[in-house]
Amino acid sequence: MNELLEALRCTYVVADWWPAESPYEVMVGAVLIQRTNWQNVAPVIEELRCRGLLDVDRMAITSVNELEAIIRRVGFFRQKAMRIKALAEHLVRYHCSDPAHLLNQELEVARNELMQLNGIGQETADAILLFAGGRPRFVAAVYVSRILSRTGIFVSSDYSEVQDFVESWLVRDRDVYARSYALLVQLAKDRCRSRPRCQGCPVRHLCSFSS
DNA sequence: ACCCAGGTGGCCC
DNA sequence: GGGCCACATGGG
Fold first, then answer.
1. What nucleotides of chain C have any atom within 7 angstroms of a protein Cβ?
2. Please, which pLDDT band fits residue A15 given cuts at 50, 70 and 90?
3. Is residue A17 within 8 Å of residue A182, measured between CB atoms?
4. Is the pTM above the cut of 0.85?
5. Which A residues between 132 and 171 have a beta carbon under 7 A from any strand C atom?
6. What is the pLDDT of residues A139-187, one digit of tens each?
7. Is A82 exposed, middle or buried (0-12, 13-18, 19+ CB in 10 A)?
8. Cα→Cα distances A16→A19, A36, A150, A194, Å
9. pLDDT per residue over A26-76, tens digit each?
10. What is the spatial distance, in angstroms and rounded to an integer, between the CA atom of A118 and the C1' atom of B10?
């Protein structure tokens, strides 16, 4: 595992994995990105920004219909419109419209609260905690478990198990978590998409990708 | 005409 | 408690 991370560190420089100007922007993006790609999400985020909707109070009083129209191109727009609105309403109601007020609570408390919200499961909750809150929670995305299982480093399809495993190998630090996550996902994407790169794969000797 | 993309929730057995 | 399925759009 250390060998894998070491090799990755030497190969990739992942700057700005989650580009955003505010924690709230990360939270909204975390819901919008589900089952889609950043290419679809980025312009939608910009549109929300132009309309002044990357603001908790504004978002909370915007109609679902209007939100649906704006975010349509991210897919799942009806659910996601409801969800980002409900998220905003929750922040207004219980956290003085301040994401930090939610995110800075004790880690498990904040995580459980996030997961109570519709559309926020384990992975999204952890992504929000890490990238919006700067809290030490490793995001055990499918890409990560895929890399670990295909390298034979750790085989499990259970989210918490994979998360615990990776966290046990890393210094409990938000930047370490964020960086390692970005590196692993980047590797997974490279390998899935452009086969030729496999020859120059930094962890070639660790990998046995046959598919 | 497929398949994938930085998931979640609900229903079924 | 694991295994499907809907959710919807854009790009290869």
1. 3, 7-11
2. low
3. yes
4. yes
5. 157
6. 999 999 999 998 899 999 899 999 999 999 999 999 999 999 999 998 8
7. middle
8. 5, 19, 27, 23
9. 999 999 999 999 999 999 999 999 999 999 999 999 999 999 999 999 999
10. 12
**Chain B footprint bases within 7 A of protein beta carbons:** 4-10
Distance measured from the CA of protein residue A182 to the C1' of nucleotide B1, in angstroms: 33
In this complex, the residue with its CA at the shortest distance from the C1' of nucleotide B8 is A119
For strand C, is any atom closer than 7 Å to the CB of A122? no
| pLDDT attached to residue A205 | 46
- How many angstroms is C1' of C7 away from CA of A80? 10
